[in-house]
Amino acid sequence: MTAELGHFALALALGLALLQATLPLYGAARARPALMELARHTAIGQFILVAIAFGALARAYVMSDFSVAAVAQNSHSLKPLLYRMTGVWGNHEGSLLLWLLILTLFGAMVAMFGGSLRKAFQARVLAVQAMIGTGFLAFTLLTSNPFARVWPPPLDGAGLNPLLQDPGLAFHPPLLYFGYVGLSVAFSFAVAALIEGRVDRAWARWVRPWTLAAWAGLTAGIALGSWWAYYELGWGGFWFWDPVENASFMPWLAATALLHSAIAAERREALRSWTVLLAIVAFSLSLLGAFLVRSGVLTSVHAFATDPERGVFILLLLGIATGGALALYAWRAPAVGTGVPFRPVSREGALLLNNLVLVTACATVLLGTLYPLFLDALDAGKVSVGPPYFAATFVPLVAPALVAMAVGPMLAWKRGDLAGALGRLWLAALGAALAAGAALAYGETLAALGLAAAAWIGLGALVEWGERLRLGRAPVEEVRRRARSMPRGAWGAGLAHLGVAVVVAGITASQCFQSELILAMKPGDSARIAGYEIRFDGVSRIQGPNYRADRATLSVLDDGAPLAVLGPERRFYPVERQHTTEAAIRTTFLADLYAVIGEDDAQAGRTVRLYHNPLVPWIWIGAIVMALGALLSLSDRRLRLAVPARRRRQPATA
Amino acid sequence: MTRLAAVAGLLLALASAPALAALDASEMLADPALEARARALAKGLRCVVCQNQSIDDSAADLARDLRQSLRERLLAGDSDEEALAYLTHRYGDYVLLEPPLKPATWILWFAPAGFAAVALLLAVRYFRRRE
C-alpha cells in the first residue's frame, strides 16, 4: 500500500511541476502577482510529495518488502539496517528518486529563502527549476518506476553489490547529487536572467551561495568516492580517470570556474555573460554525467543501442535543457553584456585565466571520455583512453593555473601590479624552492614540480592572509582588529586554496614516493617495507552478518617492537556470490601502511600486497579543507541568503 | 572479424568471471628486473573485458591470462615494444591504455593544445577590442 502511495505522490508532484513550469512564467510576463506567487507554493508542495515518495520507498527497503521490484532486485533481508537504508539509492530507480528529492529540496529552498528576490524573477527561476523537475519526474514515472510490483514476491531479495555495502560509498551519492542538482539552481538563475535580459551584481550575489553549496557537495562527494576506491578496490590507487569518475569531475571543473567568474561578476560586474554561460555549462555537464552513467553507453555503445529507452530519454532531456538554454543565450547574451572592462593583469584577469584553464581542462576530459564512444559509434576502431592520456594532457594544462593561483588574490581589481604581487610572495617562492630542492635530492623531478607547486599555493594563501591582516607590519592590536573584521569570504577563499595545496602535495607524494611489495607469505614469514617489518601471523575464518571472510593477522614491527596489527580481509558474500577485498590501513596522516590479501596457495602461501603511501591522506584532508572553505564563504554575511534586503538598512562597513 | 568474435566471447565470459585477486605472487617472475618491466607494461595494458582497469589491477580471468602471456613473451626475450606489438596484434589498439598516435586519434591528441590556443586567442581578442 505504501508503495502505491509513493507512486501516487510522484504523479501528483509531476502535476505540480507542470503547473509551476508554466503559469508563473505567464504571470511574470503579464505581471499577475497571484500566478507568480503560485510558484512558491507548488515548489514546496513538490518537495513534500517527493519526500513522501522517498519515505515510501525507504520504508519498503527497511521492511524488506520484496513485492516491490526494486527492493527484490537490490536488497536482502540479511543485509544490515544501514545498507538496507542506503540501498535505497544504490540502484538506478532509487538514485533517481534521491536526485528528485534533492532537486525539489533546492526548489523549495529557493521558494522559502528567496523572499528578497524580485517577485517576477523568483517566479521565473522557480518555473525553470520546475521544467527540470518535470523532465526528471516524467523520466522516473515513464521509464524507471521505483514502485513497480512483482507477483508473486520472491522469498528474499537478490542482494546489493557488496562493493556498495560500505559506509564510504553509502554516503557518496547523496553528497554528489547535492552538487549535481545544486548546479541546477545556478542554471535556473541563468536561464531566468536570460529571459529577462538582465544580469547585475545582485544576480551574481544570488548565484554564488548556491554554487558554493553545490561545489562543496561535489568536492566532498568526489573525495568520498575516491577514498572509497582507495580502500575498497584494494590496489592502493585513488583516481583512475574512469569515465564514471570523469562524469563527476567535469561538472566540478565547470563549477569551480563558475565559482570564480561569479566573484568577478558580483564584485566588479565583469565577465557577466560568461558567468551565465558557465552556469548553463556546469549543469549541462551534470546532465551529461547522468546520461553517461545511466544509459549503459559506457559499457558499450552497442549495449546502449539494444536497450536505449532510458538513454534516449536522458539524451532528450540533455538536448532540450542544454540546447534550449544555449539558444536562449545566443539570442539574449548581447542584452546581458560582457561586463565592465579590466586590464589583463588584475584580479579579474587572474579569475579569467583560472576560467580559461579550467574550461580547457574540462573540454579535454570531455574529449577523452567521449572519444572512444564516438570512434566506436562511427565504426572507426576501438581505442582506450586511459590514465596515461589524461596525465599527458590534463596535468600540463592545469599547471599554469596552479602557478597563478597564489598570485591572483594578491592583485588589485581592474589594474594590478604583477611585480609588486610577486615581490610580496617571496616567502612562497622560497618555500617552493626548498620543496623542489628536497625532492630533487631524492632524484624525483616530477615530485619537485608538484611539491613546489603545493608549497607555492599553500604559502601563497598564508601570505595573502598575512597581507590583509598586515601581519608583522602593524601592531598586534590592529592585526586582531583586522582579523575580526576580515570577511568570511576571504577566509574561505584562502582556506580553499590551502586545501588545493594539500591535495597537490598528497597526489604528488603518493604518486612519486609509493613503495609496493607483493609476495607470498606463510605464517611466521616477515617482509620489510619503508623501514617497517611486517610479520604474517596467519589467517582466521570469521563470519560477518551477510558474508564470511578470511582475515589475516599482520604484525607491524618497528625495530622488533610491535607497533600495530593489520587485519586485511577477503570476504565472500554468498547471496551475491561475490568476493571483495578489505584493505587494512594504518595511517599516521603523513603516510599510510596499506595491506591486502589475495589467494591462498597450499605450497607458496598467501599472496600479500603491501603498500607504503606517503601523504596519501592529504588528498582527502585537502578536499575536506576545500569544502570547508566553501562553507565558510557561504556563511559570509554578504552572501547570506536574506542579507541583500537587510543590508540596505544598515550601511556597509566592509 | 575473428577479433570481434573473440571480444564478444570475452564480454560473455565477464558476466561469470569469478572475482579473484589481482596479480598473484605465484605469477611473478623470479628475475626482479624482468618482473619490474612486466609490471610497468601491465599498468599500461587494458583488461579488455573490464571497465577501464589495467591488467595489473584487474582480478578478471582474462587479465590473468594477459599477464601470463606478457610474462611469457618477456621470458622468451621480447623487448618491451615486441611484447606490446604481440598483444596489440591479438587484441587491437583497444588493449593500450595510452591510445597510439594514428589518423583516428589525431583529434584526440591534438585538440587539447587546440583548446588552449583558442582560449588564449579569445582572451587576446577580448583585451584588444577593449583598448
Distance between the termini of chain A: 57 Å
| CATH topology heading of the largest domain in chain B | Helicase, Ruva Protein, domain 3
- Residues in β-strands, percent of chain A: 5-15%
Q: Supply the number of structural domains of chain A.
A: 4
Q: Any idea what the radius of gyration of chain B is? A: 20 Å
| Number of strand segments of chain B | 0
Class per helix and strand makeup of chain A: alpha+beta
* Low-pLDDT segments, ≥5 res of chain B: 1-20
- Radius of gyration of chain A (Å): 27 Å
Task: Point out poorly predicted stretches of chain A.
Answer: 642-654
**What is the CATH class designation of the largest domain in chain B?**
Mainly Alpha
What does this structure look like?
The complex is a heterodimer of chains A (654) and B (131). With 654 residues, chain A is an alpha+beta fold. Chain A has four domains: 1-162, no CATH class; 166-401, no CATH class; 425-513 and 618-626, no CATH class; 515-614. Chain A contains 22 helices and ten strands. Chain A has helices spanning 2-30, 33-62, 69-74, 81-86, 92-113, 119-143, 167-170, 172-196, 201-232, 243-268, 272-294, 301-306, 309-336, 347-377, 387-407, 418-424, 426-441, 445-469, 476-485, 488-512, 616-634, 643-647, and strands at residues 515-521, 526-529, 532-543, 548-558, 561-566, 569-573, 578-582, 584-587, 591-601, 605-614. In chain A, a hairpin with a 3-residue loop joins β8 and β9. In chain A, α1 (2-30) runs antiparallel to α2 (33-62). The longest helix of chain A is centred in the first third of the chain and has 32 residues, at 201-232. The model of chain A is unreliable at 642-654 (pLDDT under 50). Chain B has 131 residues and is mostly helical. Chain B has two domains: 2-100, Helicase, Ruva Protein, domain 3 (Orthogonal Bundle), CATH 1.10.8.640; 101-131. In chain B, 60% of the residues lie in helices and 0% in strands. Chain B has five helices and no strands. The longest helix of chain B is centred in the last third of the chain and has 25 residues, at 106-130. Chain B is elongated. Residues 1-20 of chain B have low confidence and may be disordered. At the A-B interface, α14, α15, β1, β7 and β9 of A face α5 of B.
